[in-house]
Design goal:
Elements: H1 2-17, H2 21-26, H3 30-49, H4 53-56, H5 58-68, H6 72-84, H7 90-120, E1 124-128, H8 132-143, E2 147-152, H9 155-163, E3 167-170, H10 176-181, E4 189-192, H11 197-211, E5 216-220, H12 226-231, E6 235-238, H13 239-252, H14 254-262, E7 268-273, E8 282-283, E9 293-300, E10 303-305, E11 312-313, E12 318-323, H15 325-335
Parallel strand pairs: 1-2, 1-4, 2-3, 4-5, 5-6
Antiparallel strand pairs: 7-12, 8-11, 9-10, 9-12
Helix pairs in contact: 3-5, 3-7, 5-7, 6-7, 13-14
């Protein structure tokens, strides 16, 4: 504690006091050396961070590389030790210290700008179809506060969609550039909902092939295509099975079905991953849940559990939550560990 709190600050203060800028200026080719050091310092962290692009995206990986490039203590300590041992010259030592200072100012600034742009890019839902199903889905999602874009090559369908107050683009869904033009990113959901299975399959192949996109839901009009679509890595929504489930809900649980179907504003259903360490191995009844939300189902690996008061939650559980938008948001923040709540906050 004394070392970190007393001696190390004195060390850095004395490095700053003894920093000799003149030795750096007198050094031959000092400008070229500084450029080489800066490029080496940043590239040694940024290039390895590119390995994480498939999982986290270019912006997040790049911002992490810049942030990791800030290594003030390590560089300054190495420069001082090298200078004391006579391994490096005073000019090179000053160059390394200047590099550390430059990196500590530049890295957080670039990181903050990249992260702000990433946070401001709100995820959206891209619906490929301006038909009746596509328009109805877009309307309901918009009522839930989602950012929705409808794509169709039929001008009449686009006109009807825009009359509903929905953002719609008249473009060819089979053109890869269409999705670049609407700003497709990895957080977006793409719903392919045309009435032609051949078009749906082709659009899915284009989006998977060109953009390696993972969040694709496709309307499956023919049950025979189910396995093909699953093997493509997309989520098929079979109309026959969906109709059967809807009829089943109308027979077995009509009130619950109508609550979900007719509520465009008051209620939502969401999956929340329990990632807050504070609630690992915690009994469900001991969690301060929002009064307007409750847990419908707990998914743990291949298991699906019905929640009870004495159910013990584990980190990594996926909780299906039902409630008002405010309750869903509060419960999500609580279980994901992004906020702390008192027991009576609900």
């Amino acid at each position: 504690a004394i070392g970190y709190g007393f001696f190390i600050p004195i060390f850095f203060i004395m490095v700053g006091v003894n920093f000799d800028l003149s030795s750096l200026m007198k050094m031959q080719h000092s400008t070229i050396l500084m450029i080489i050091l800066i490029v080496a310092a940043f590239s040694s962290k940024i290039l390895p961070s590119m390995l994480f692009v498939p999982d986290f995206g270019m912006r997040s990986s790049l911002s992490a590389g810049f942030l990791l490039s800030s290594r003030l203590s390590l560089i300054i300590a190495a420069a001082e030790i090298g200078l004391k041992l006579g391994i490096i010259s005073p000019g090179l030592s000053s160059s390394l210290i200047a590099l550390a200072i430059f990196a500590c100012f530049l890295s957080p600034t670039i990181y903050s700008k990249l992260q702000r742009k990433s946070e401001s890019s709100k995820s959206k839902v891209i619906i490929v179809s301006g038909g009746k199903i596509g328009r109805t889905l877009a309307y309901r999602l918009k009522m839930h506060g989602k950012d929705v874009i409808v794509i169709d090559d039929n001008p009449e369908a686009i006109k009807l969609t825009k009359e509903m107050g929905i953002n719609a683009i008249n473009a060819d869904p089979k053109d890869p550039l269409t999705y670049k033009n609407v700003g497709l990113n990895k957080e977006d959901y793409v719903v392919v909902a045309t009435g032609d299975d051949n078009i749906n399959i082709e659009v899915c192949r284009i989006i998977k092939g060109y953009y390696k996109h993972k969040k694709i839901i496709v309307r499956d009009n023919n049950p025979d295509n189910y396995e093909l679509l699953r093997n493509m890595g997309v989520i098929p929504m079979n109309l026959v099975l969906s109709s059967v489930i809807t009829l089943e809900n109308l027979v077995l649980r009509p009130e619950a079905y109508h609550i979900v179907k007719d509520s465009l504003q008051p209620f939502e259903v969401a999956d929340v991953v329990l990632s807050n360490d504070d609630f690992h191995n915690t009994v469900l009844k001991d969690i301060p849940m929002h009064k307007d939300g409750f847990i419908l189902l707990i998914k743990r690996g291949d298991q699906q559990l019905i929640p009870k008061d004495d159910t013990i939650l584990h980190k990594g559980d996926v909780l299906t939550v039902f409630g008002t938008p405010e309750a869903i948001n509060d419960i999500s923040l609580l279980l994901e560990g992004e906020a702390k709540y008192a027991a009576d906050s609900s």
